[in-house]
């Protein structure tokens, strides 16, 4: 049975990187839009470990939390030999680094979500002045090593589940604030642009509906 | 070379579950207290991926983010056959569940840290009324399966790195608010009490200095 991704209907949010990884790995999945009412029913039925979405049902294993879900997909992909990529990295150290990126992506997403929810120009200005430079400068450094034959951030040569998490977080910020915010970070921009043009990602981004995120 | 844990001097914070897992697995490590000045130097030198502590230097691999660090330690322990426990769980599904617990522990810790920073009785009241019941009720359900021969939350029989992350987050809340807050959740309380009495954890908790967290 194909994995089923449950998330709030019409929203990208914490589910979007999961969708992208399913597409990039070529693993068929079902995208289930959840209404507020269904959400309450699922929670009451004990389907959601901590009352949160996204949840992915992997043949009975009902997994929550984006990092755990992404790594589970990466593992399925590598085991099935899908594509030429190694989504878990080449070895345990690269896999640990991917996990670190994944957690960091959660932090970055949380900060950008707060800016988006607040919604004011002032919130955007503050985010651009205080939050974005710290993250993008760090990611720009990591991207230096990635821009020859490498595709993954840091020392790894593979585009891992951690890269996908960071990519979606960064891409969401460029959508919210304009692509120009990434220009002062040329290495990050090059890495981001390469990821945007991964075939399955490009098709996904062009085909997705508008969303309030 | 023993792994080196870098964290703010005299603080428990996001390093405490890492310390506990090092102790529980019996892996020797060095606890390096970092002053504000040293922190700035380390950040400027590029030692901290996203300008954050804790960082653990595993023989040159400088890893940040608690979930990534905990799983890396679990992996070292299982590979070295330290103790009779399987810190990664019995199979990939249990390992994915442990990751999910680990991410959830970050969320819970963030909420309890906000309460602690705010510090007022009002903040404590709000946390007790709104945040704590949601988390503790969910964990209490998970603990039901754990209280026979089981030691890990959920379906797993092992006390994994995910359990350690949740245990520290819950234990920190009982220290901040009083152990009585856990009493309405008998399964969680039983699980928590068993974890407190794991030999290495007990020694660690009794031996640690007071800290503002």
Automatic annotation (TrEMBL), chains A, B:
Highest taxon in the source lineage: Eukaryota
Domain GST C-terminal: residue ranges: 91-213
An example Gene Ontology molecular-function term: glutathione transferase activity
GO biological process: one example: glutathione metabolic process
Record-linked CDD domains: GST_N_Sigma_like (cd03039)
PROSITE patterns membership: GST_CTER, GST_NTER
GST N-terminal domain sequence ranges: 1-81
Protein name: Glutathione S-transferase
Species of origin: Salpingoeca rosetta (strain ATCC 50818 / BSB-021)
């Amino acid at each position: 049975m194909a994995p089923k991704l449950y998330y709030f209907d019409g929203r990208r949010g914490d589910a979007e990187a999961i969708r992208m990884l399913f597409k990039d790995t070529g693993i068929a999945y079902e995208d289930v839009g959840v209404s507020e009412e269904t959400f309450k029913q699922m929670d009451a039925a004990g389907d959601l470990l901590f009352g949160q979405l996204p949840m992915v049902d992997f043949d009975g294993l009902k997994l929550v939390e984006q990092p755990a879900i992404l790594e589970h997909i990466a593992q399925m992909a590598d085991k099935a030999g899908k594509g030429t990529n190694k989504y878990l990295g080449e070895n345990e150290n690269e896999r640990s680094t991917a996990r670190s990126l994944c957690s960091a992506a959660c932090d970055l997403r949380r900060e950008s979500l707060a800016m988006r929810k607040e919604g004011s120009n002032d919130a955007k200005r503050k985010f651009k002045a205080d939050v974005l430079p710290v993250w993008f400068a760090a990611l720009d450094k990591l991207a230096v090593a990635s821009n020859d034959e490498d595709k993954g951030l840091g020392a790894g040569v593979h585009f891992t589940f951690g890269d996908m998490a960071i990519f979606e977080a960064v891409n969401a910020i460029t959508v919210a604030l304009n692509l120009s915010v990434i220009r002062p970070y040329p290495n990050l921009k090059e890495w981001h642009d390469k990821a945007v043009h991964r075939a399955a990602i490009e098709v996904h981004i062009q085909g997705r509906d508008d969303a309030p995120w």
